[in-house]
């Protein structure tokens, strides 16, 4: 859209509204261009207009007499749609402290746009398969019936830096499979999650998936570490009333 001449006083501020209402899960690009000219129609004097570098010339409109007639500010805008937030049931990964567990997490992405094909955004969901995975391939390429390859980026986001510092070294995640239903257009991503907690905890995280064609999906996750198994049972046998009984045992530090 175009806004006709708006008068601004010196050092006055102006807000430029930008409205974004996507109907498909793909990135949209636009440019906000601001062209400023003097109110009296005169030019800004500039003696060396012929010597302007290429980048500066693209931001100025130069008059025939060599003066600067207008100044351009160009702001690129990227509109990235995000799947509508819904109250999804978190995918729970549970493990006893000081043990290690692997889980398959399956997420459904709706509205993924392969190339120029557009589909409306619908629902999204996440589930956990409690069966341990078999052989994991490093790279899984699954044909989806389209010539265009759609790539995905993913990460785990945490509610605070403190939770991130606790979980970052305890959780591993790897995309092992991706499929596409040609009829519904729903893309299924299957992740292998490794959780190896060192102490009891209960922390939330968000699995964020981004598509290179545009679009963001978020899925809640919950990591629960229960109490560890008892290391050993120490029995102390009494030698008599009002007499001390002593038993010795060794503790080995896991770190320096």
Automatic annotation (TrEMBL):
Q: Which InterPro entries match?
A: Ig_CFAP47
Enumerate the spans annotated as CFAP47-like immunoglobulin-like domain: 82-226
Q: Which GO biological process annotations does it have?
A: sperm axoneme assembly
Cellular component terms (Gene Ontology): cilium
Under PANTHER family, the record lists:
CILIA- AND FLAGELLA-ASSOCIATED PROTEIN 47
Q: What is this protein called?
A: CFA47 protein
Q: Which gene encodes it?
A: Cfap47_5
